[in-house]
C-alpha cells in the first residue's frame, strides 16, 4: 500500500511514528503472554537508518525507557533523530504521545491522557483507531482533542482497518499519520509519515499544521511469522537460562522471565518449543490472518455508513 496521492512528497522527509523495542513489556493474548518486541533500541536505530527514516519515534507500551536509550545511542549519528514517545494504555484504548518529557501514567481516561500529553508540549495521536485486535479509541477519536490519526498502520493487513481510519479522518479533521508499528527490526520503516522539513521539530510543526501524509507498505505475513518465531526462540532461551540461574544481567526481557514462577517457566518452555515445530508457526499465522480479517470486516460494516 504505497501512498503518495494528494500530497507533494518532493523534498519531504520520512518519520516512523510508531516503533517498539524490548522495553514494551509483555502482551497477553488468550492464555499466553509473550514479549511485545525483543529488539534492542540501538538495533532499531540502525534499522531506521538503513530504511531511510529521518525521524524515528520510539513508542513502547507505557514506557519511555527504550526511547531514551535509542535517543542516547543516536546522538551524533548522521541522518537520524530519535523522538521520545510512548504508546499509552488509556481507560478507553491506546494512544500515542510524541515529543514527551516524561512518562504518562496509564489507566487515565482518554481526554485526560491527551491533556497530560499536551501539558508536556507533546503531540497526541490515535494509533490503529479501528483495530480488530488492539485496544483502540474507535469513534471516540472524533470527540478528543487529538493532533493526529494513524490512518496507515503497517501490521494491520486486513484491508479494512486502515481504510476505515482514512475515511473517518476526513470527517475528524486531524493530521493523518503513518507508522510501522514495528515489533521487530525487519518491520521498522515499513510505513511512515511524510512531512515538510528535516528535524523532529519540523515533524511536530507539520502535524500541528495538518501538513502530513503517509507512505510505505503493509508488513508481510512472512515477516509477522518470523517475528513470532524469533519471540518464541527468545522465550525459550531466556527461560532455559533462568532455570539454570544463568540470566543475562541488565536485560529487561530476561529479568521479566526470571521473575516468573518456576512452574510457569516450564510451561512456557514447552509452549515455545511446541510453537517452533514446523509447520505450527505458518498454520497459526494463516489462521490468525483469517480471524483478524473477519473481525475487521465486521467493524468496517458497523462503521462505514456512520457519520460519527
Break the fold down into its secondary structure elements and pairings:
Elements: E1 12-19, E2 26-29, E3 32-35, H1 41-50, E4 55-58, H2 65-74, E5 81-90, E6 93-98, H3 110-119, E7 123-126, E8 148-153, H4 161-172, E9 175-179, E10 191-196, H5 200-208, E11 212-216, H6 221-243, H7 252-258, H8 262-275, H9 280-303
Parallel strand pairs: 1-4, 4-5, 7-8, 8-9
Antiparallel strand pairs: 1-10, 2-3, 5-6, 6-7, 10-11
Helix pairs in contact: 1-2, 6-7, 6-8, 6-9
Key attributes of the depicted protein:
disordered N terminus, TIM Barrel, alpha/beta, 11 strands, globular, two-stranded antiparallel sheet, 2 domains, 308 residues, nine-stranded mixed sheet
Task: Give an overview in words.
With 308 residues, the protein is an alpha/beta fold. The chain has two domains: 12-219, Alpha-Beta Barrel (TIM Barrel); 222-303. The protein is 39% helix and 20% strand. It contains nine helices and eleven strands. The protein has helices at residues 41-50, 65-74, 110-119, 161-172, 200-208, 221-243, 252-258, 262-275, 280-303, and strands at 12-19, 26-29, 32-35, 55-58, 81-90, 93-98, 123-126, 148-153, 175-179, 191-196, 212-216. A nine-stranded mixed beta sheet has the order 9-8-7-6-5-4-1-10-11, sandwiched between helices. Strands 2-3 form a two-stranded antiparallel ribbon. Helix 1 crosses helix 2 (65-74) and helix 6 (221-243) crosses helix 9. It is globular, with a radius of gyration of 19 Å. The protein starts with 11 loop residues before the first strand and ends in a 5-residue tail after the last helix. The relative contact order is 0.14. Residues 1-8 have low confidence and may be disordered.
